[in-house]
User: Which sequence fits this backbone?
């Protein structure tokens, strides 16, 4: 089966890149409230992308991320200033990748390699550029091309168009259980990078493989 | 504008009926963990309905609710037995309505009255029946007729078909901010029953009115 994999496609936030520094920055700006802020912010960021997808009311992930931050700060009765918002949003553009990322990508150089994210290019491109990983990828794919968020089938279709492969020849990696459910539902091969040891989602589809970090996927070579 | 309202349509869980007793039952069954269980359960119940809507992978709200409970108990390392699951699910069929519900409904008897819920009839019908409110409603409308969860436009369309009214003549009530966003996005008049004093959602649309409980909507008569 492994010979059939022609493309390895990676989610970005939490999968290749550690979002921890966003929490750290929030902690600095809001006097130790970083944990709380980043938890609610992430939850609302996902919820708003899901709800806009369902309502047919698409805005870029950058807008959704700003909206989610605004809700979060209001819900915690914390001040939201344009300056602080910029500092927090900018953190997303300079995240560190997980330590194994580069080695794993280099070991897969005989496959097509791409990132595929709900993030819009105004967030993704600066991040990939500063990481030094850009030359390793054949494509930086954003759902913004289709204005359809993951986990909609229409979003995953972008990967096929962009890489010129069939869905069963794609191995897709994400740290988000719901993204893996959507990708398997669409017809990708799937590897859930379950860094947090979370329970499997109950959405009627299971990941093909589950690993603690990206190194696990090397058995698909 | 008030003369234009021909139908008053109510969400069910948290809007007409108090879901507190579910928490109480979880507290009994799981030794004081009811707060935690009901919080995660509710969050996953919503998330799974949203994700299935996006993935095009519909199952009834009863199934989604059971799946969400299963995830919740696994995430908390608590035992999930068929007996306990039945006891918890059954609580949804015998919730108490909020104290003002009946009086408000009776005051609106010159309008068409309906409930409209993500709940499937196997959950909704026993609940409305035991409440004694059934004779006050012209229709019990479940998204299950269209197999499209709220807040999709396709789901709200069911209300128009069922009641024979135009969207601008519908006043829609929900305690869920996202449901109100979806309903306004669709074209209903909207009253957010914000019992918990939550912040307004950041989804690009605002409720027409916000009230602490159902009595506020009487000004739309």
Assistant:
């Amino acid at each position: 089966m492994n010979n059939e994999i022609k493309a390895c496609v990676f989610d970005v936030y939490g999968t290749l890149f550690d979002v921890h520094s966003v929490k750290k920055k929030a902690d600095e700006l809001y006097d130790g409230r970083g944990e709380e802020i980043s938890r609610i912010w992430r939850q609302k960021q996902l919820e708003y992308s899901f709800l806009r997808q369902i309502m047919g009311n698409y805005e870029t992930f950058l807008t959704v991320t700003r909206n989610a931050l605004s809700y979060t700060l209001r819900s915690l009765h914390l001040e939201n200033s344009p300056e602080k918002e910029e500092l927090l949003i900018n953190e997303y553009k300079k995240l560190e990748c997980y330590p194994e990322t580069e080695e794993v990508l280099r070991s897969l150089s005989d496959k097509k390699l791409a990132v595929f994210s709900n993030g819009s290019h105004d967030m993704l491109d600066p991040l990939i550029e500063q990481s030094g990983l850009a030359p390793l990828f054949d494509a930086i794919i954003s759902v913004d091309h289709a204005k359809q968020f993951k986990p909609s089938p229409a979003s995953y279709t972008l990967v096929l168009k962009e890489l010129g492969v069939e869905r069963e020849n794609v191995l897709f990696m994400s740290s988000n259980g719901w993204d893996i459910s959507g990708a398997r539902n669409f017809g990708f091969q799937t590897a859930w990078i379950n860094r947090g040891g979370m329970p499997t989602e109950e959405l009627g589809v299971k990941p093909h493989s589950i690993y603690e970090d990206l190194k696990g996927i090397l058995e698909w070579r």
Chain B has two domains: 2-18+96-220, 20-91. DSSP finds eight helices and eight strands in chain B. The CA atoms of residues 26 and 32 of chain B lie 8 Å apart.
